[in-house]
Amino acid sequence: MWWIRIRIRLAGGAEEVYYVGGSEALPPPLTKDEEEELLRKLPTGDPAVRSMLIERNLRLVVYIARKFENTSLYIEDLVSIGTIGLIKAVNTFDPSKKIKLATYASRCIENEILMFLRRNNKLKSEVSFDEPLNVDWDGNELLLSDVLGTDSDTIYKNLEEEVDRALLYDALDKLSERERKIMELRFGLGKGEEMTQKDVADLLGISQSYISRLEKRIIKRLRREFHRMM
Amino acid sequence: MIGLDGKQAPQCIVCQQEKADGITVCGQFICTDCERAIVSTDVSDVRYKHYVDCMKRIWWRVCP
Fold it and tell me: Where does the record place the HTH cro/C1-type domain (chain A) (predicted)?
């Protein structure tokens, strides 16, 4: 089967990454200087710049897609979905932010695949629990609900939580030190325990209503950062 | 369609139309309109599956 050949090829190692179904190696990654030059030109909107940034980061797509090989998707679907994630990453990347393209693109590629998997899981979950799987000699039906154990998306939920957590910490980095402190105290981020608005207000020597207003504003900002990264 | 440089405009792998502007990834052309559409399309959109299928063109190389 041709896709088995692909799997063998893709599993060959980091240095030799091949096109799906072929023996031609993927374009090499950009050097630091090349990437800097292209990122400098990216805001001009030149399609040639985007083309190069996408093409030379395709290995990243393969690398991330391979992490999802044990899911219900074939590798050719995974790399295609990952490519869409990469195109989205290059189109939404802001070079003025202090984040590397590879880091940002990795998140976008992974997120794209996770979103697709989650969507697929939702569609699958629309199958009725009363779906008969088998009927015995006495005419008793074995229903889907009889064999269901744990949630089918437990594994992906954990992966998504990991990505969401990573995105949250990236978004927190965009806040000022004071804003970050408020979030850490209020929601017990890191090792601490959650504190009430009143406790945080007392600790920082400001009023509870001011903390409430700040909190709303910070959450709004975090949500915006979140959407931008996704 | 003939471009300003006198060359035949490339055909987009998504909309199959000949367009002048767009990105080329591994020899496969995606016009600017389709690129924008891809960027703004969510996985739940009915068009998404079509885009996924189109992207396979980028990855496919005929075995020697």
Answer: 195-216
Per-residue pLDDT of chain B (64 residues; tens, 9 = 90+): 665 566 788 999 999 999 999 999 999 999 999 999 999 999 999 999 999 999 999 987 654 4
Pick one of 1.20.120.1810, 1.10.3720.10, 3.90.550.10, 3.30.360.10 as the CATH number of A17-123.
1.20.120.1810
CB contact under 8 A, A22 and B64: yes
Nearest to A22 among B24, B51, B62 (CB): B62
Which position has the token pair 């979103």? Answer: A115
Where do the structural domains in chain A lie, given as residue ranges?
17-123, 175-229
Residue range A11-44, pLDDT digits in tens: 444 445 666 655 567 888 999 999 999 999 999 9
ipTM surpasses cut 0.95: no
Q: Quick one: residue A205, left, alpha or beta (phi over 0 = left, psi -120 to 50 = alpha)? A: left
Q: How far apart are CA B64 and CA B61, in angstroms?
A: 9
Backbone angles phi, psi at A78, to 5 degrees: -60, -45
In CATH, the number for domain A175-229 is 1.10.10.10
Helices and strands of chain B, counted as H and E runs: 2, 2
Interchain contact, B61 vs A22, CB within 8 Å: yes
Cα R_g (chain A), whole angstroms: 23
